[in-house]
Automatic annotation (TrEMBL):
Keywords: Isomerase, Magnesium, Metal-binding, Phosphoprotein. It comes from the Bacteria. NCBIfam families: PRK09542.1. Gene3D superfamilies: Alpha-D-Glucose-1,6-Bisphosphate, subunit A, domain 3 (3.40.120.10), Alpha-D-phosphohexomutase, C-terminal domain (3.30.310.50). This is Phosphomannomutase/phosphoglucomutase. Residues 374-448 form the Alpha-D-phosphohexomutase C-terminal domain. It comes from Streptomyces tardus. Pfam families: PGM_PMM_I (PF02878), PGM_PMM_II (PF02879), PGM_PMM_III (PF02880), PGM_PMM_IV (PF00408). Signal peptide: none annotated.
């Protein structure tokens, strides 16, 4: 039995195949998932990685052996799996390692209605069961074996998303999409079909070895091709999806990246126009533009910790209509509180196509401050360095501190957040200020303390 502590993470299962896990282990995970959820039916999908079909089928067989009927939707994006879980009201399993290199694979699990499964909501129990079955396998059951049924939900997924955003009447737009050889190459053609868009498709061939670049648009190196194509062709905007196509990044007509915080604010304003007085969730690293825009639009902004489990929990607790993160995860009440980059992309297209100006002008209203982006520092004594930063700022006049997630320090016209990584000896710093000089000043002072 491999060391499951290395692959069962806080929110998912992820590791190198076959070194850390394989189809035999996937089968046990399928059986344990059914035991923990008590499900008599589940839905399973997978991405384009070479190992995904075999792992997905092994999981499905393990689930069926415990008596669950399994609907296999085959190739899909992660948000397409969430759609199936919500629409069919079934627990689900998505086989993907998102933007990780080709040798990795993983499982994202959810309960019926796309409700998240994490370490404290079932994933820990699943791990314990699998570990207990290491020697002799799952105990015998009197339940008859479940069935395996194939079902294609791509058209239904596309129709559902397009029913949430009125995009048919927009002006014609030219859009470049970089799918990174990931699942965006599967979903975008169907979702965009028939819309007033000229689609310039980059790297739409499904290839889990990622021959062109990593499918991680958060790394600036991976959107260089997209930026160049937008500039060369005079496109109205560019979109980049990560490997499992649940995140979407945007570049404007100049090829300049649009901050996910600005997209969060833009989509929040559109959702608040439909749902007056609604609640918007944002994490503690998103720009202060977000709560400002929400307040101006008559909504209530609720700040939470980084991570989809915290966002989804707050959305459920508050009845929020929308949530956004700095990492380009966007969550919608109308999508079972799950994240879907595709729906966010449709909102951007609708907003841009509903007026005559360029995207850079449109998002300027929502991008009000200068920011550093995330800066990582390798630090062995994370707690000690955090304490040093806290002590330095604790008694400064006009400065406030909070520990909602790591340490956030807020001054008169700047703020920063510094958090420890859960998996690496890193401290992650994000700085925002009214201008670039303010960002530089705060960044240098904090990094001097962190890297002392």
């Amino acid at each position: 039995m491999p060391d499951l502590s290395q692959i069962v993470k806080a929110y998912d299962i992820r590791g190198v195949v076959p070194d850390q896990w394989d189809e035999a282990l996937a089968r046990l995970f399928g059986a344990a998932f059914v035991e923990v959820t008590g499900a008599d039916a589940i839905v399973v999908g997978h991405d384009m990685r070479p190992s995904s079909p075999g792992l997905s089928r092994a999981f499905a067989r393990g689930a069926a052996e415990r008596g669950a009927d399994v609907t296999e939707i085959g190739l899909c994006s992660t948000d397409q799996l969430y759609f199936a879980s919500g629409q069919l009201d079934l627990p689900g399993a998505m086989f993907t390692a998102s933007h990780n290199p080709a040798r990795y694979n993983g499982i994202k699990l959810c309960r019926a209605g796309a409700a998240p499964v994490g370490q404290d909501t079932g994933l820990g129990e699943i791990r314990e069961l699998v570990e207990s079955w290491a020697e002799s396998g799952p105990p015998a059951t009197d339940a008859p074996a479940g069935s395996l049924t194939a079902r294609d939900v791509l058209d239904d997924y596309a129709a559902y998303l397009r029913g949430l955003v009125d995009i048919g009447g927009i002006r014609p737009l030219r859009v470049v999409v970089d799918a990174g050889n990931g699942m965006g190459g599967h979903t975008v053609p169907t979702v965009f079909d028939g819309l007033p868009l000229t689609l310039d498709a980059m790297y739409f061939e499904l290839d889990g070895t990622f021959p062109n670049h990593e499918a991680n648009p958060l790394d600036p190196a991976n959107i260089v091709d997209l930026q160049q194509r937008v500039r060369e062709t005079g496109a109205d905007l560019g979109l980049a999806f990560d490997g499992d196509a649940d995140r979407c990044f945007v570049v404007d007509e100049r090829g300049e990246p649009v901050s996910p915080s600005a997209i969060t604010a833009l989509v929040a304003s559109r959702e608040l126009a439909k749902h007056r007085g609604g609640t918007i969730i944002h994490n503690c690293i998103t720009s202060h533009s977000v709560p400002e825009v929400v307040a101006e639009a008559g909504g209530t902004a609720v700040r939470t910790r980084v991570g989809h489990s915290f966002i989804k929990a707050e959305m459920a607790r508050t009845g929020a209509i929308f949530g956004g993160e700095h990492s380009a995860h966007y969550y919608f009440r109308d999508f079972w509180n799950a994240d879907t980059g595709m729906l966010a992309a449709l909102h951007v297209l609708a907003a841009l196509g509903g007026q005559q100006g360029p995207l850079s002008g449109l998002v300027a209203e929502y991008d009000r401050y200068a920011s550093s982006g995330e800066i990582n520092s390798t630090v062995e004594d994370q707690a000690g360095r955090l304490s040093a930063v806290e002590e330095t700022y604790a008694d400064r006049e006009g400065v406030s501190l909070d520990r909602l997630d790591g340490l956030t320090v807020t001054g008169p016209d700047w703020w920063f957040n510094i958090r420890a990584s859960n998996t690496e000896p890193l401290l992650r710093l994000n700085v925002e200020a009214k201008d670039e000089e303010g960002v530089r000043r705060v960044r240098e002072e904090v990094l001097a303390l962190v890297r002392a």
